[in-house]
Amino acid sequence: MPLWGRRLLVVLAIWVAALAFAHWSPMEDDFGDFVLLFTAPLTLGLILGLLAGLPWWLPVGLLAFPGTFLLVYAASPWLDVLEVETWPKPVGLAFPAVGYLIVSWLFSPGFRWPKIGVGVLLAAGVVGASPLEDLRSDTEFEDMITSTSVPLVVPVIPGHTLVSSSSLPLNGEIELRYASPDGETEIEVYLHPETRDPQEMCLDPAPRYPIDERSECREAAPGVWVRTAPGWVRALGRAGGATMQMIAHDLPEDVLVRGFAQTRPVTPEELVELRDV
C-alpha cells in the first residue's frame, strides 16, 4: 500500500479510537475524559505508525501530542467567533487525528512551500488565540455587567481609588475593590439593585468574614447601617440609585460611612479595563 494510504489508515484509526472512547470511558471526571480522549488515540497512533512502517514514526508519534494541544488551543477561540458552545462531537474528536496528520505530513518529503504556509497559519492561530480569547472574555464580562439591574455608579471613598472589578459578577451584583495609594488598606464594595434593603442586608451574615459573630447592626448615619467586629467593619446603604455594601479591615468606620456621600458614573468599558482576571 502506498505511504499516503498507510498514513491515512493510521489517521482514521486514531479518529475511530477517539469516537469509541467518547462512548466508553472509565474516567469519572471531565478532565480525565479529556486526557483519555486525546492521549489514548495518539498512543495508538504511535504504535500503528511503527506497525505501518511510516517514516519517522517515533518523532511523528511523540510530536503529535504537543501538536494536537496547540491545534486545540488555536481552534478554541473560534467557538466564540462562530457563536457555538462546543465543537460538534465528530469535529472535536477529530483533533488528535488531524494533529497527527499534520505532524506526519510535515515530516514527509517535498511540499516545501505548502508546509511553510501551514506552519505560518498554525503559528498565527496560536499567537492570535490569546488576543481573541481576551476579546471574548471582555465581551462576556461587559454583557454580564450590562445584564445586571444595578445602576452603573461607584462610590467616591476618601483616600481610596477604584483599582479592580470582579471578573464574575454574580447574583445580579457587581464587586469592586478599592485601595489606598500606598496599598496598605483595601475596601471591598458590592453594588446591588436599589430594591435591596440595606437594613435587612445588614442583619444577614457576611460569608467569609467574622463581622457578624458577636456584633449588632446599627445606623451610623442616616440610611447607612454598620456592623463591626474586632478589626473589621461592614457598612450598607443606598447611594446613586444603588444599594451598596462596603467591607474593610483595619479602617476607621467613618471612612466607609463617608463613602456613601458621593458617587460617580462608571461605564462597562471602564469596569472591563479594571477586571481582575
From TrEMBL:
Q: What is this protein called?
A: Uncharacterized protein
Q: Does the keyword Transmembrane helix apply?
A: yes
Q: Where are the transmembrane segments?
A: 32-51, 56-75, 87-107
Record keywords, A-Z: Membrane, Transmembrane, Transmembrane helix
